[in-house]
């Protein structure tokens, strides 16, 4: 009964913080949460922690986690099952309709010129460093091709993997952002190129944003999401390393994440929990990605064929369209019919055989009416800004020019008053550097022109009378400014080109009908920021994109780029609080490296011989020599910290007392004693000699020979293709040990 009530409650009240049906502990936690939220000085991480504590996991999320077993194993039975799966079951997943599809390295890029041709649809995997991107790419295909390390910063380039044979999808393993063990400049370079790639790549179908399940959403992840949203890229969150998080905790985290992310419009699907390393929850992701593969069927000359190339597909599609158009024209020429032109044009545009459709529909009811054509209006040529988000640019302009809207209205009015062709919409494509050149002109006449800039400006002034020139130079924007706004500015002559970061601060001459033109300034090479990257007041108020540089101010004229870069670098090097965490994850790898033994010290070290009844023998170099040969007694006898040589030699306790401890002996004396002892016991008490790990030449040779034999055999098998080389594969290919299998396993 209690379980029933609980289930009903869980379903009906998902994460409702105000519910009455809670235990006192939960109520206390919620109270703490509200208190922390009300206090603005509380660290956001603490609020997040409290939020997770007091959240109620959604039932469907809990169910999904339970069914897919992505969370941390908690029972011995599950642990055994997982161990068995990983050890004995071969991993050959079906992806893109192929079993264990091939992963072929296409290219690794860190520059635009190195990018491959856009032949395949691409899915990029991005996320913070060490979030498991390369591992996910590997395990999607069931392979170990991409480079994986425990240290953050293992992938330093954009790695393009062609997946499948024939290749049907391109997986792009992006370098991570946030903390990484790499030089500062390198990190900046790869981060910038990654951002550019995401923004500019046309065939990028989706970005998988990987979030470490142990950490949840970090500020840099939020930045990345807002970046993706801003540039209209479809994205999806994949929560990795779920095998490290307890199920209930994971469910809570996912529920909160879903709630937070549901506001974004470019989120293609809900956050997906996976554990790449334990191979759980990957099927759902494979299904999602399989829908994006390139495979199109074309029937040509009665032969059906598949095309796995987007460029080829486009070419074929165009050829097909051309052919159809040609046929239609030929048909029309053969039997001409009076056809409504507009109607036909519509059909052509939509590419639908709507004529037939209309005929069919005509038998059922009234035929669709063709809307009456309006008289053609004069179409004004308008240059639309390159930016997708016009409002953002407007806001940006308004922040620079407080009276922007008025100016714009005035400009468009004057444009329509004059011939209508000269003045177009503004275009900020050239203002990406955040710097403008401002020229002051009198109505219709340039006031003064400096020698170096003269040509360009003259062109501008001519363009007013020359319509052709206007179409060639669409970036130039002219608009009038009311003369009563200017108060005069010291040292500014009319016509003088002024480079400024804030044109609105340039005051005009009172009483003059002046004009300001914004001219494109060629962006310098390292200027990678667009006007879109500047922090707008609206963003600032909403708390977004705090890392973005604010608009340039008179206090920092010309420092825009330097400031931008400084802030950017600082922000992407953020979350240094995670360094300890990252180091904690890879303690061995990040330990300070041991200093190499100096060569002179090596020379000083005495090469210990071992003693046989025939005399000294040099110790063979190599791994495990102590195991094969036993320790030379002199070392043991002479070691100060070894209290009992018999113990060190692993001699049985009954011999302990009889052994010579050798304290204070010189090397030669110890050697002599050992040889004597060996000779004495060799025949009568062979066991005792063996237990003392005394070295025996024959044994050594026999062991070596058997090792060589095994090696030869293994090499022969590898050559015949009977087994893979490599440690893990050998284990997997071992025949099943039936006895070792648990009871519940299928035999
Ligand atoms: N337990 C667990 N560990 C994982 C999982 N996925 C990745 N790892 C481990 O996380 C570490 C980093 O994995 P990578 O795939 O190199 O991470 P990355 O995001 O490519 O890192 P960078 O290339 O440096 O940005 C490795 O030690 C992996 O074994 C997972 O699902 N579960
Ligand atoms: Mg990587």
Automatic annotation (TrEMBL):
Keywords, in A-Z order: Cell cycle, Cell division, GTP-binding, Magnesium, Metal-binding, Nucleotide-binding, Septation
Domain of life: Eukaryota
InterPro entries: G_ENGB_dom, GTP-bd, GTP-bd_ribosome_bio_YsxC, P-loop_NTPase
GO terms (BP aspect): cell division
Record flagged with keyword Electron transport: no
Region (Disordered): 319-382, 443-533, 583-633, 685-747
Basic and acidic residues composition bias: residue spans: 328-345, 470-483, 590-606, 685-708, 728-747
Necessary cofactors: Mg(2+)
Domain EngB-type G: 119-295
Protein name: EngB-type G domain-containing protein
Composition bias, Low complexity: 485-497
Family membership: Belongs to the TRAFAC class TrmE-Era-EngA-EngB-Septin-like GTPase superfamily. EngB GTPase family.
Organism: Effrenium voratum
Listed Acidic residues bias regions: 452-469
Signal peptide range in chain numbering: none
